[in-house]
Specification:
Helix content: 55-70%
Strand order of the largest sheet: 1-2
Number of helices: 19
Radius of gyration: 29 Å
Order of helices and strands: HHHHHEHHHEHHHHHHHHHHH
InterPro entries: Zinicin_2, Zinicin_2_N
Shape: globular
Protein name: Hydrolase
Pfam families: Zincin_2 (PF10103)
GO molecular function, one term: hydrolase activity
Keywords: Hydrolase
Length: about 450
């Protein structure tokens, strides 16, 4: 059987009786069986080509799967479109200079195809998903090793590596499906709240054009607003260097506690219809590896959602200031708020893959906080909150923005009191009190004896 999977001739009559019984009438259909074996051969070939040095995921399979999803609808960017994006980028830069103290990156905003977006963001996807993939693959490998009969283990040789390759390929196929869907939906490098392309700003030209259809707003105004959002995100991530690592750290904390319900995988495999070529792909797209969350993961997820909300709230506020002269600014602002809060099909696909929903659930509260800080402290004071992770607002601050400053002042005062007391202790201790009681004599001073 394994020889046939790896390229040998296939004869249905050589199938084990148990497998023939499971396949039913399909076992007697040479065309259907040949098609099934061709699919299995392609998958197994990709699995065996997986390079462990490249990480847990079969990235070649992920790339090939993603390409199949978007390649047929990925037109080249015309020169006129590139020129329009460049003009919008120049104007957006000037407007943002008046709305934030964070300077521009100095890098021109690029016009991307869907393929270019995939290539530009793949490095970050690797960083984000490798910790999750490693946990998933360990779970799959452990479960398969436990269930595999000893004689089969001997036939397979290095079964541990084979199962790791299998898990990496299955995860890669799912991830490729998700990224292929994302490539058809995202507007730029920061559209889901993460700096996927690093400090390089860019827009997926055909997706921006599709986004504007049906809004009944001038195309130039939509383009300028989208450019403002992309440029604001990139300024924030570049000028706040600890922010990216905080986001990725939250994902890694989430990944460390992943537990996979293997019974779901076993049930899904049993339900695959050999006569339906799309059944395997459908199985891979149904969140097969979605983890069951632990308390630690729930905390990591809340931390991630809070950070995403603060980022999106700041961008929402700053862009509203920069775009105040656009006639449809408020309309576009509300459109993006709903889009980010609800999540599109692409984000839902990614959530089903790894169990992470990359959406800012408290966007409106976060925007209200930044608006309050702007009114209270001005632009420079507002943006200074990003100076250090310890200064960042908490969930309590989103509940009560007006008390943000007073809470910080109270905490600072308590720290100063503690620091003063500690300094006094280190400088020689505290003076003795007037209490006549001797600490070494709990009975205190004794009356003189007659």
């Amino acid at each position: 059987m394994f020889g046939q999977l790896f390229g040998g001739g296939f004869d249905p009559n050589n199938l084990p009786p148990q497998l023939r019984a499971a396949l039913g009438d399909q076992a007697n259909n040479p065309a259907a069986m040949q098609q099934m074996m061709q699919q299995a051969q392609a998958f197994m070939s990709a699995m065996m080509q997986s390079n462990p040095a490249e990480g847990s995921v079969n990235w070649k399979l992920a790339s090939d799967t993603a390409l199949q999803a978007y390649a047929s609808e990925d037109p080249a960017v015309s020169e006129s479109r590139r020129s329009a994006i460049a003009d919008a980028s120049h104007l957006a830069g000037m407007w943002l200079d008046n709305a934030t103290v964070f300077e521009g990156t100095g890098m021109p905003l690029e016009a991307w195809t869907r393929r270019k977006w995939f290539d530009k963001t793949l490095g970050t996807w690797k960083q984000l998903t490798e910790p999750i993939a490693e946990s998933v693959i360990k779970a799959i490998t452990s479960s398969m090793q436990e269930q595999l009969p000893e004689q089969i283990k001997g036939m397979l040789g290095n079964s541990d590596q084979i199962f790791r390759n299998l898990g990496g390929s299955m995860f890669g196929a799912q991830l490729g499906t998700a990224l292929g869907t994302l490539a058809k939906d995202v507007l730029g490098g920061t559209d889901i709240g993460l700096p996927l392309a690093g400090n390089t700003p860019g827009l997926v030209a055909t997706n921006v054009q599709a986004f504007g259809e049906g809004l009944e707003i001038p195309e130039q105004e939509i383009l300028l607003y989208v450019v403002l959002r992309e440029a604001a995100h990139v300024r924030l991530f570049q000028r706040v260097p600890w922010l990216s690592s905080k986001l990725i750290g939250a994902v890694e904390s989430y990944a460390r506690g992943i537990h996979i319900d293997m019974s779901r995988i076993e049930e899904a495999v049993r339900d695959v219809d050999p006569s339906n070529p799309e059944s395997l792909q459908q199985m891979l797209g149904e969140g097969l590896f979605t983890p069951q969350r632990t308390e630690a993961q729930e905390r990591a997820l809340k931390n991630l959602e809070l950070t995403l909300a603060l980022i999106e709230g700041w961008v929402d506020h700053v862009v509203s200031l920069a775009a105040k002269n656009l006639p449809f600014s408020e309309h576009l602002r509300e459109t993006f708020r709903r889009r980010r809060a609800s999540g599109g099909p692409a984000e839902n696909t990614f959530a089903s893959l790894v169990g992470l929903e990359l959406r800012p659930r408290r966007l409106r509260e976060a925007t209200a906080l930044w608006e309050h800080l702007d009114a209270e402290r001005g632009t420079e004071g507002r943006d200074a909150v990003w100076d250090h992770p310890d200064l960042m607002p908490t969930a309590e601050d989103l509940d009560d923005p007006a008390s943000f400053t007073s809470r910080r002042e109270t905490a600072a005062s308590e720290f100063e009191d503690f620091d003063a007391q500690l300094g006094k202790l280190l400088d020689g201790g505290f003076e003795a009190t007037d209490d006549p009681q001797d600490p070494e004599d709990p009975d205190g001073p004794q009356e003189p004896k007659p």
